[in-house]
Every structure is written in C-alpha cells, then in structure tokens.
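Here is one record:
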Amino acid sequence: MTFYRRHLPHWQPDGKYLFITWRLEGSLPREQTPAHISTGRAFAWFDGKLDEARSGPTWMKRQDIAQIVADSIRYAANELSYCELAAYVVMPNHVHMLALPMIAAGKLLDSIKAYSARQANLILGRTGEPFWAHESYDHWVRNRGEFERIRGYIERNPVRAGIVANPQDYPWSSAAP
C-alpha cells in the first residue's frame, strides 16, 4: 500500500480500484471547507462547489479541451495499459475517474494530467501557468456495492449538475454510447 500526504491523505492499496477526482487550478472558491466535518462530507462539499462552477476557470466546457482530457484518460487505459478504467466523466472544471491502476496511481494521474494540460494550454495560448490543481482526491473502493455506487455517481454527475437530462447524453463520460 502506498501512503502519502499533501493537504489530503492518500491511501492507495495495490490491486484496488480508486475513485480519483482532480480539478482545474483556481476552480474552487477561496472559502474554506467547513471545519470539523468528516472526509466524506468534505468531499461532498468540495464536489458540490465544483458542480456549481460559480468561480474559476471552466475550460472543459470547450468541446476541444474536454475531448483532449477524455482522450487522455482512455489512452492511458487502452493504449498504455496504465489502468483498468471502470468509469470517468470530464466536467467543466473537474474530472472523476474510477480505475484499477496497473502502475503507481501517482504516475497514472501525472501522465493524464501532464499530457492533457500541455495540449489544453497550447489551445488556450497559455504558458507558464498551471492547468490542473496539484492536489487530487482519491478513495479506495472497499467492496462491489461501493464500486457500483461510485460508478453511478460518476456517470450521473452531469445530470446532478444540470448539464444534461440523461447520463448517456453527455459525450465526455463513460456513460456515453
């Protein structure tokens, strides 16, 4: 099992699916997570603020950039065999992914983030500025029921955020045909 800490603790056992969320740099409001709440409630607060997308960049509203990110995720899984991909969604300012890493989870995420950031920044004409926030959220999946709940949560995210009526209608998701 790998463990490290930045702002958040990261427990990443070998051979377990991980629910990973990462976001654009500057996409969260400056207000702090409410004090004295559990990690799960903190994640719900964090994800709710991202779904509102009331502050910060929303570059992945652009089809070309959302496509780069989605393609990067699928490439890491299908071509590089860095993970077994169970679900993903590319939202306007963040990404959720459910995957079984076949390499160190940090290397998997770094690969996806580095390539997609480079390509997106070229399109946006940005240099010298971070695209993705350094910190990410990850949670290891403990059982099949949790796996199914997380997969549903990921694929229904665009519906909860009011972007589409049906998960299958969102093109940058594993729910899309």
Observations:
- Residues 141 and 148 are 10 Å apart (CA to CA).
